[in-house]
Structure formats: structure tokens, C-alpha cells
Automatic annotation (TrEMBL):
It comes from Methylophilus aquaticus. It comes from the Bacteria. InterPro entries: TPR-like_helical_dom_sf. This is Tetratricopeptide repeat protein.
Length: 178
């Protein structure tokens, strides 16, 4: 009986120590996350290497806020390579689409009202990013709204620039040997 009680006490002591270790680790993680959240609220760069995806995400977000859209898209692309979960990938694609959409909107338009080639390319890439975001998270209302907004902008200014017509006319005669 006493042997059984000693084994039980040893088992419960081990479980208690294991639980204390897990609780200490959870407290440490909570403290670290609290520091990260405070830095995010203050708009500061995250320098903590314990959370590399959050650090990269904040760097990309900061670049977008500073109107450095090309680098923001590049940093978001690097973040995608870190293989986050599907929901995180959906948010990253959404942010890529937002940066490309804004980048296309700040481009100047041609004299005929059509977008410059750079803007047209940015809009096309933004559309792809929004669609990818919706493939990963079909219920994302913000991505649906931005995609429909992008479609309305693209419909108005995406006509191709007028091409010069050649003065040479082609006949309807077949080319080649009879």
C-alpha cells in the first residue's frame, strides 16, 4: 500500500512540476506577446526575433504606410515564402492587392484617359492577389469589396492606348503557292 502511495505521489509530483513548467512558459510567451502588441499599437518596428513572421509583416505594413508600395509588395512576397497558415496567406495576398491597387491609382493617366502601362500592370496583379486571397478565404468581405472596386476602376480606364494604323492595306489574296 505504501509503495502504491509513493508511486502515486511521485506521479502527481511529476505532473505538478510539468504543469508548472508549462505555466511558466505560457506566462513568458504572454509577456513577449504583450510587448509585441504594445509596439504594434505605438506603430514601432518590431525588433524581436522570436516572432519572425510578425516582424516581417510589420515591416511590409510600414513600407506601405510610407508609400513604398513596390518594396511592401516584395516584403509581403518574402513573407509568403515563410509558409504561414492559409488564413495568414489570405491576409498577405489581401495586403499585396491593396498595395498594388494604391500603386496603380497614384500613376498618372494618359491624355486619352487610359491608364499608363505601369498602372495597368499593377491593377492586373492586384486582381490576381485579391482572387488568390478569396480562394484561400472565400468569406473575406473586405477582399470581395476591394475586388469589386478594382473591377469598376479597371472598367473605366483599362482600354489599350490607341495604336497607329498602317497605311498599307492587306489584300484578301492567299499567300503562298497555288
Amino acid at each position: 500500500m505504501t509503495m502504491h502511495a509513493k508511486k502515486s505521489n511521485g506521479l502527481f509530483t511529476g505532473l505538478l512540476l510539468g504543469g508548472l513548467l508549462v505555466a511558466a512558459y505560457a506566462g513568458y510567451r504572454s509577456y513577449a506577446i504583450q510587448d509585441i502588441n504594445q509596439a504594434i499599437r505605438k506603430g514601432q518596428q518590431i525588433r524581436d526575433s522570436r516572432f519572425p513572421t510578425i516582424k516581417k509583416f510589420m515591416a511590409a505594413y510600414d513600407q506601405g504606410n510610407k508609400n513604398d508600395y513596390k518594396h511592401a509588395v516584395q516584403t509581403y512576397g518574402q513573407l509568403l515564402e515563410m509558409s504561414p497558415s492559409e488564413s495568414e496567406q489570405a491576409r498577405i495576398h489581401f495586403n499585396i492587392g491593396n498595395n498594388l491597387f494604391i500603386f496603380g491609382l497614384i500613376r498618372k493617366v494618359n491624355e486619352d484617359g487610359s491608364f499608363q502601362d505601369e498602372a495597368r500592370y499593377a491593377f492586373t496583379q492586384a486582381k490576381i492577389a485579391y482572387e488568390q486571397s478569396l480562394r484561400l478565404d472565400p468569406h473575406d468581405q473586405a477582399a470581395k469589396f476591394n475586388l469589386s472596386l478594382l473591377h469598376s476602376v479597371m472598367a473605366r480606364g483599362m482600354q489599350a492606348a490607341a495604336k497607329e494604323h498602317s497605311t498599307m492595306e492587306l489584300s484578301n489574296l492567299p499567300i503562298g503557292l497555288p
